[in-house]
Amino acid sequence: MSAPALAAELVCPQPWPDAALPLLAARGLSIALGGRELCRAFDFAVRAGQCVAILGRNGAGKTTLLHALAGLHDEGSAATVRGEVRFGTRPCAAWPPLQAARFRGLLPQHRASPFAATVLETVLIGRHPHLGRWGWEGEADAAIARAALAAVGLQGFDDRDLRALSGGEQQRVALATLLTQTPRLLLLDEPLNHLDLHHQIATLELLAALAAAGRGVVMVLHDLDMAARYADSIVLLDGAGGVTVGSRDEVLTEATLSHAFGHPLQRCEVAGKTVFLP
Length: 278
Prior knowledge:
alpha/beta, 4-stranded antiparallel sheet, 12 strands
C-alpha cells in the first residue's frame, strides 16, 4: 500500500477539534542529565499536519528530549525535567496511561527482541492500547496491522520469525508497530536507522503523508539534507543547553548549524533541493 493510501486507511477517526490548538506543547522546558544542562527554558509546539525534526550533535540530548516530550520522565528518572508538556488541552501527566498511549506513540531507538515471535504477532502489539483488559485482537486489528506492514514494504512477512530479519527489516517492523497503534502524535527516535537510501526516502514520504492526513510527527534525525527536505520545523540542540526552534529555513542556516555541530557547513541548492556540505 502506498503512503497516501495508508494515510487514508489510518486517518484519525475524528478531525482535530481546533486547528489552532497544538497536539503537543512544551512551555519553559528545561532538561538536565548527569549534572549537564541539555536544554534550557524553551517553548515548542506541534500542530496537526506538521513534521518536526530534532537535530544536534551526538550526546546533545535528542533522545532525552524526545522522551520528555512523550511524557516518559518522572521523579525516578535520571533526567531532571522542568517546565510543562501538554497533549492537547491537558498536561501529559494528567492523561490516564491508556488514553495517552492512544494519543501518542513512540518509536524508540533501541529495542530488544529476546523471544521468538512472528512479524504479525509483533506488529499487533500496537493494538494493545485499543483493547479491553481481557481483549484479544480481532480481524479489524489484523487488517490495520497488515496495512501497516504493506506501507513499509513488508507485505507477506506475517509469519516470518522476527529474529531472522535483517536490521533494516526489523526497523520497518518497528515502524509498522507504531503505525498499527494509530496514534495522533508520532514521536520517532532515529527512524532511518539501518535503512538503505530507498527505504529512508519511503519512510519519510510515509511520515509526510500521515502528517498531511492530520497527524503530528516529531523525529530525531542525523541527516541534515533529509531534515531540510521533509521537516516543516526544526528543534536544534547545540550540546551546551542552547535550543533553536523555528521553521526549516529559519534554523537551517550555515551559521546556526556550524555553531551547533562544531564544524563549518556550507548550504547549497542542488536541483531545487537544499544540501549541506562540510
